[in-house]
Backbone:
C-alpha cells in the first residue's frame, strides 16, 4: 500500500505543493457544494442530496485526471497549442454570440455537437488568450519597448476576444482585460504604454457608463439594463436591503460565521442565498468554517501564486515562466474577485471560485490551466535535474 | 522583471487582505445588525387555524360542518416548469379541466394557458372553490402530479361550511354569504366565538422559498378547536315542516311563510322552517321570519285578551257578550265581524270559536278602556312586550305602545290583534304556555354546547307561571272548541285531536296603510289536545291563490305536520297494550335459561317457574316435568333443544324435515333405555 502511494506520488511530477493546494481546494469544494446544494437537491432531485455531491466528486476526479494528462505534456508544445486555440476561439465566440443558448438574455453557452456537453466559450477563450499572451511576451522580450512591434500585436490579441465576450458577459470581459494588462505589466511592457492603455480604457469605460446612465431606459439594448441595475445596486443603493437580496444574504452568512468554524453543513443561509453553491460559495465557506477557514482559502490561492512565481525565478524570461505566471495570475485574480464579490467589496459578477464552485464546464478549463502550470514546473524540475547531473 | 512580479504579487496579497478585512468588518462591526436582520427575515409567528365547531341536530345528525376547499392558481414562471413538460401536457390538462368543471372549453383553457405562459403570469387563476374530492383527482392529473415546483400549481386552502341536509333550517343555522368566514345570521353568528375556537400560534423559520420549519419553542400555543353546538332541531320534524310549508307556499303562491314547532314542556324548538319566494315555483330560506319578522298578529291574539280578562276575573268561558249584528262602533271607528253572528248574544267560548272581532273588542273596551295599564301588564306577563332572547342572531322586537300612550280605542284594537306587532315566536310562546298548564317557557334552539365531546354548557329551561289552572282549562276548552265546531272545523279528525286558533290578519304595508293590505294567514295551537306534547305556529304571508283564510291556508299545514309528527313519535302514540295480545313467542318449549335470556333481551317481564324446561301455553309458562327413563313430550321444541334433551337421557336422535318437533317415534310417557334411538319429525 505504502509503495503504491509512493508510486503515485512519484508519478505525480511537478510542484508537489501546487498538487496539494489543488487537492485541498477540491476537498473544500466537495464539502461546501454538498452543504450548499441542499435546496437545489430539494427542488430538482426530490431531495436526493447526494446527487450534487456525486456530480462534484466526479468533476473533481475528472479535473485531476485532466491536470495529470495536461502536466505530462511538455509545456513547450503549449506555445503552438495556444496559437491554434486562440484562432479557434474567435469563430466559436462568434458562433456563441448569435447561436448560443440564451440564459437570462445572455448567450454564453454552446452545445458541443454529438457529445451534447455545454460549455462557456469565454472560459476557453480566456485560457487561449492568456497562453497566447505568454507566447507573445516571450517572443517579443527583446523589443518589448517597441509599441508597434510588440505592444500593438498583444493588444490586438487581447482586444478581439474581450470585445466579443463583452456583449454577453461584461464582467468576465473586464476581468480578462484587466488580467491581460496585469500580465503585460509583469511581462515588462513599458509603463508609458501601460499608462496610455489605462487612460484609453478609462475613456472607453467612462463613455460607456455615461451612455448607460444618461440614455433613457428604453434605449438600453441587450443586457445593458442588467449592468445598470448591478452597478446601481453596488454603488448607489448599497444599504437598501430590498435591492440586493443576494448581497444581503451573503452578508448575513458571513456575519453568522464567526471567527472559528461552525462546522461543515451548519450553514443556515445556504437556503436563502441564491447561487450559494457557485458564485457565492465563499460566503458559505465563511459561515461554516469561520474567518479562519476564509483566510485559509485565500492563503491556498496565494501559495499557488507564489509557487508560480518561484517557477519564474528558476527560469526567467522563458515561455514557461510567462505561461505559469500568466495562468497563475489569471486564476488567482479570478478567485480574489469572486471572494471580493462574496464579501461585498465588488459588484455582483458571474465569476466562479476556481476549483471550489460547483459547475461543470469551467472545471475543465480551470483544470487545464492548473495542469499547464504543473507541466511547466515538472519540466523545469527535469531541466534542473539534468543540469545538476551535468554539473556533477 | 522580478520587481514587477513581486509588485503584482503584493497587489494580489493586498486584495486578499482587503477581503479578510471586509469579512472581519462584516462579522464584528455589522455582525449584530445582520444576525438580527436574518432573524427578522426568517423567523416569524405563524397562525395555526382552529377547526370550527360543528352544529348538530337533536339526534346528533350533522347540520353544519367545515370542509376545506381550494382556490387553484398556476405559476407559469415556476423554476421547475419546463417548456417541454407544459407542451406535452397542455392538451390533457385543458381537456380534464373542461370535463371536470364544464365552465370553459378545452380550447379556451389551452389558449389561456398559452397566453399566460407567454406572459409569464405567476398567479394565473385556474379555478376557485374546488372541493376536496376534485382536488384529490386533480393532484393525480398529468403535469399537476409533478408537484408545486414542476407544474407551477398553487393550492390555496379555504374553509367552507357544508350542510349535509342542504337547506334544512339553514337560516337558523346561519349562512356565510360570501365564503369569507363571516357569518351574517343564525346560530353561526350568535355562537361565532364559541364555534370558531382559538387560533394557535407557533414560531416558524423560513428555510428557503416556500418551506418553513416549526421552531421547537415553549411559546407555542396550540389551537383550541371550536365548540360543537347541539341544537334542538329535530331533523325529521324540520324536514316535514319545511316540506309542507314549501308545498303550501307554491300552492297558494304566497310571498313567504314560516312554521315553528316547539316541545311543550321544555320550549325546545324542534323545527323552524322559513321560506321566501324566489320565483313562482322556488322558495328559499332568505330570512328567519319566525324569529325576526314582527307583524300584526290578528285573530290569534284574541286568546291573550280573553286570558287577561279571565285572570282579572272579568269573564269566564260562559260569560255572554252582545255582538249585535256583528258591527260595533267605538267613538268614531267601527269594528266589524267577518260575518254576522248566529245570534246577537254569544258566550265567550262561542265568540272565540267563530272568531268574533266585536266580542273581544267590546270586552276589552268595556273592561280596559280606562285601565289600559292593567291590560298592558298582562300582555307584559305573557311575554308580548319584550324581545325573546333566543340563541340566534337577529331576533325581532315587538312593537307595542306604552299604556300611557294608548288612545281610547287602543284596547279594542289590540284586543283582536292590531295596533301591535309581534313575531310568530311570541304568539307560539303564549300558546305553548296554555298547553303547558299556564307555565311559560322560553323558547330555545340550543340543547347543549360541547367541547372535546364534553358538555360545557346546556340550556336550562326558563319558565314562569303566567296563567291560573282555571284560566288554562277554560282556554283549552275554547281552543278545542275552535277545531271541534268553530273556524277550524276543517282540521278536525278522529285520529289526532288538535287545539288551536286561526288568524287572518290584514297587514298594513308601509306607508300605503291598509289600502294596499295583504293578508297573513296563521294558525297557532298544540297537540294532542288532551295531553299537549308540541305546540306549533304556521304563518303564510300574502297568499294569492286558493284562499287566504287562516284555517285553510295555514291550518292545513298545521294538520299535516301535526299528523306526521304524531305518526312518527312513539312516545306520543303510546296506547295501553293488551297483555294477552302482547307477544306470542315462537319458542314453545325450551330451557329456562334460554328463555330467561330471550325475555331479558326483549325487556319483557316473565315468570318462568323453577323447572329446567318450560312450555308455553295459554299465555303462561309452565314447567315441564322431566323424569329419568320416561319419554317427555318433545312437540313444539326446536331441534337443538330436543337433541340436547335426548342426549342428556342417553338416547340417539334421528330426524327429518325442518322447523319444530311435530311428532316423535316414542310416545310421551313410555319408558326408555339408554342407547335407544328416537326418530323425530319436524314441521312448522
Residues:
Amino acid at each position: 500500500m505504502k509503495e503504491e502511494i509512493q508510486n503515485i506520488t512519484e508519478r505525480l511530477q511537478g510542484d508537489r505543493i501546487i498538487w496539494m493546494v489543488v487537492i485541498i481546494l477540491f476537498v473544500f469544494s466537495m464539502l461546501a457544494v454538498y452543504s450548499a446544494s441542499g435546496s437545489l437537491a430539494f427542488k430538482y432531485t426530490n431531495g436526493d442530496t447526494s446527487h450534487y455531491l456525486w456530480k462534484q466528486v466526479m468533476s473533481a476526479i475528472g479535473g485531476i485526471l485532466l491536470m495529470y494528462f495536461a502536466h505530462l505534456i511538455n509545456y513547450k508544445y503549449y506555445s503552438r497549442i495556444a496559437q491554434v486555440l486562440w484562432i479557434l476561439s474567435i469563430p466559436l465566440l462568434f458562433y456563441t454570440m448569435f447561436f448560443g443558448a440564451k440564459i437570462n438574455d445572455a448567450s454564453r453557452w454552446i452545445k458541443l455537437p454529438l457529445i451534447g456537453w455545454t460549455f462557456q466559450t469565454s472560459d476557453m477563450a480566456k485560457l487561449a488568450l492568456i497562453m497566447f499572451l505568454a507566447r507573445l511576451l516571450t517572443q517579443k522580450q527583446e523589443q518589448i519597448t517597441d509599441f508597434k512591434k510588440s505592444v500593438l500585436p498583444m493588444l490586438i490579441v487581447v482586444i478581439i476576444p474581450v470585445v466579443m465576450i463583452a456583449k454577453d458577459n461584461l464582467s468576465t470581459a473586464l476581468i480578462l482585460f484587466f488580467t491581460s494588462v496585469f500580465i503585460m505589466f509583469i511581462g515588462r511592457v513599458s509603463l508609458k504604454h501601460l499608462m496610455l492603455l489605462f487612460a484609453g480604457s478609462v475613456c472607453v469605460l467612462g463613455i460607456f457608463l455615461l451612455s448607460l446612465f444618461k440614455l433613457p431606459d428604453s434605449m438600453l439594448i441587450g443586457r445593458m439594463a442588467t449592468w445598470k441595475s448591478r452597478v446601481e445596486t453596488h454603488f448607489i443603493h448599497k444599504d437598501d436591503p430590498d435591492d440586493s437580496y443576494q448581497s444581503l444574504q451573503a452578508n448575513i452568512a458571513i456575519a453568522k460565521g464567526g471567527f472559528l468554524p461552525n462546522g461543515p453543513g451548519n450553514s443556515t443561509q445556504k437556503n436563502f442565498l441564491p447561487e450559494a453553491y457557485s458564485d457565492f460559495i465563499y460566503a458559505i465557506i465563511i459561515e461554516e468554517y469561520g474567518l479562519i477557514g476564509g483566510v485559509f482559502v485565500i492563503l491556498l490561492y496565494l501559495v499557488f501564486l507564489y509557487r508560480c512565481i518561484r517557477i519564474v525565478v528558476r527560469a526567467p524570461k522563458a515561455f514557461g515562466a510567462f505561461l505559469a505566471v500568466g495562468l497563475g495570475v489569471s486564476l488567482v485574480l479570478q478567485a480574489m474577485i469572486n471572494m471580493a464579490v462574496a464579501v461585498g467589496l465588488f459588484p455582483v459578477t458571474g465569476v466562479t471560485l476556481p476549483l471550489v464552485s460547483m459547475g461543470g464546464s469551467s472545471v475543465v478549463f480551470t483544470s487545464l490551466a492548473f495542469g499547464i502550470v504543473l507541466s511547466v514546473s515538472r519540466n523545469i524540475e527535469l531541466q534542473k535535474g539534468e543540469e545538476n547531473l551535468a554539473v556533477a | 522583471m522580478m520587481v514587477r512580479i513581486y509588485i503584482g504579487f503584493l497587489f494580489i496579497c493586498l486584495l486578499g487582505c482587503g477581503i479578510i478585512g471586509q469579512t472581519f468588518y462584516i462579522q464584528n462591526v455589522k455582525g449584530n445588525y445582520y444576525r438580527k436582520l436574518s432573524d427578522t427575515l426568517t423567523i416569524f409567528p405563524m397562525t395555526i387555524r382552529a377547526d370550527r365547531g360543528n352544529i348538530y341536530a337533536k339526534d346528533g345528525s350533522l347540520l353544519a360542518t367545515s370542509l376545506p376547499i381550494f382556490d387553484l392558481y398556476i405559476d407559469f414562471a415556476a423554476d421547475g416548469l419546463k417548456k417541454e413538460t407544459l407542451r406535452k401536457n397542455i392538451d390533457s390538462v385543458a381537456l380534464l379541466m373542461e370535463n371536470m368543471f364544464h365552465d370553459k372549453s378545452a380550447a379556451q383553457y389551452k389558449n389561456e394557458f398559452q397566453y399566460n405562459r407567454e406572459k409569464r403570469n405567476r398567479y394565473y387563476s385556474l379555478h376557485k372553490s374546488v372541493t376536496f374530492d376534485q382536488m384529490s383527482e386533480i393532484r393525480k392529473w398529468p403535469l399537476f402530479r409533478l408537484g408545486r415546483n414542476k407544474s407551477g400549481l398553487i393550492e390555496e386552502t379555504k374553509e367552507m361550511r357544508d350542510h349535509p341536509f342542504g337547506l334544512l333550517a339553514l337560516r337558523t343555522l346561519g349562512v356565510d354569504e360570501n365564503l369569507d368566514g363571516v357569518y351574517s345570521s343564525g346560530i353561526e353568528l350568535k355562537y361565532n366565538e364559541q364555534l370558531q375556537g382559538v387560533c394557535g400560534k407557533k414560531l416558524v423559520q423560513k428555510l428557503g422559498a416556500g418551506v418553513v420549519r416549526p421552531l421547537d419553542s415553549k411559546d407555542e400555543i396550540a389551537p383550541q378547536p371550536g365548540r360543537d353546538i347541539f341544537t334542538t332541531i329535530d331533523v325529521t320534524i324540520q324536514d316535514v315542516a319545511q316540506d309542507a310549508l314549501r308545498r303550501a307556499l307554491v300552492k297558494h303562491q304566497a310571498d313567504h311563510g314560516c312554521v315553528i314547532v316547539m316541545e311543550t314542556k321544555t320550549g325546545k324548538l324542534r323545527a323552524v322552517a322559513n321560506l321566501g319566494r324566489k320565483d313562482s315555483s322556488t322558495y328559499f330560506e332568505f330570512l328567519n321570519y319566525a324569529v325576526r319578522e314582527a307583524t300584526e298578529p290578528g285573530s290569534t291574539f284574541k286568546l291573550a285578551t280573553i286570558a287577561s280578562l279571565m285572570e282579572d276575573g272579568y269573564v269566564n268561558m260562559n260569560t255572554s257578550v252582545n255582538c249585535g249584528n256583528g258591527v260595533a262602533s267605538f267613538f268614531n271607528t267601527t269594528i266589524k265581524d267577518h260575518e254576522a253572528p248566529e245570534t246577537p248574544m254569544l258566550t265567550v267560548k262561542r265568540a272565540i270559536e267563530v272568531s268574533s272581532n266585536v266580542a273581544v273588542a267590546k270586552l276589552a273596551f268595556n273592561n280596559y278602556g280606562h285601565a289600559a295599564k292593567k291590560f298592558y301588564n298582562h300582555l307584559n306577563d305573557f311575554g308580548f312586550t319584550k324581545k325573546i332572547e333566543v340563541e340566534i342572531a337577529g331576533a325581532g322586537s315587538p312593537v307595542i305602545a306604552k299604556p300611557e300612550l294608548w288612545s281610547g280605542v287602543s284596547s279594542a284594537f289590540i284586543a283582536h290583534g292590531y295596533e301591535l306587532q309581534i313575531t310568530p315566536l311570541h304568539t307560539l310562546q303564549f300558546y305553548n304556555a296554555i298547553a303547558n298548564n299556564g307555565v311559560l317557557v322560553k323558547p330555545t334552539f340550543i340543547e347543549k354546547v360541547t367541547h372535546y365531546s364534553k358538555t360545557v354548557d346546556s340550556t336550562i329551561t326558563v319558565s314562569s307561571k303566567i296563567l291560573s289552572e282555571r284560566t288554562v282549562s277554560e282556554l283549552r276548552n275554547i281552543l278545542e272548541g275552535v277545531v271541534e265546531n268553530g273556524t277550524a272545523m276543517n282540521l278536525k279528525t278522529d285520529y289526532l285531536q288538535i287545539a288551536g286558533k286561526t288568524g287572518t290578519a290584514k297587514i298594513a304595508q308601509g306607508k300605503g296603510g291598509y289600502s294596499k293590505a295583504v293578508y297573513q294567514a296563521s294558525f297557532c295551537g298544540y297537540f294532542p289536545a288532551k295531553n299537549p306534547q308540541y305546540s306549533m305556529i304556521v304563518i303564510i304571508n300574502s297568499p294569492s291563490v286558493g284562499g287566504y283564510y287562516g284555517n285553510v291556508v295555514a291550518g292545513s299545514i298545521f294538520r299535516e305536520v301535526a299528523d306526521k309528527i304524531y305518526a312518527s313519535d312513539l312516545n306520543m302514540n303510546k296506547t295501553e297494550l293488551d297483555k294477552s295480545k302482547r307477544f306470542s313467542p315462537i319458542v314453545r318449549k325450551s330451557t329456562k335459561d334460554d328463555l330467561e335470556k330471550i325475555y331479558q333481551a326483549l325487556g319483557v317481564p316473565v315468570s318462568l317457574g323453577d323447572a329446567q324446561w318450560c312450555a308455553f301455553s295459554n299465555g303462561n309458562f309452565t314447567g315441564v316435568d322431566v323424569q329419568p327413563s320416561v319419554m317427555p313430550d318433545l312437540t313444539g321444541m326446536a331441534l337443538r333443544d330436543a337433541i340436547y334433551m335426548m342426549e342428556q337421557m342417553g338416547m340417539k336422535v334421528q330426524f327429518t324435515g325442518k322447523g319444530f318437533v311435530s311428532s316423535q317415534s316414542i310416545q310421551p310417557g313410555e319408558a326408555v333405555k339408554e342407547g335407544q334411538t328416537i326418530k323425530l319429525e319436524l314441521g312448522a
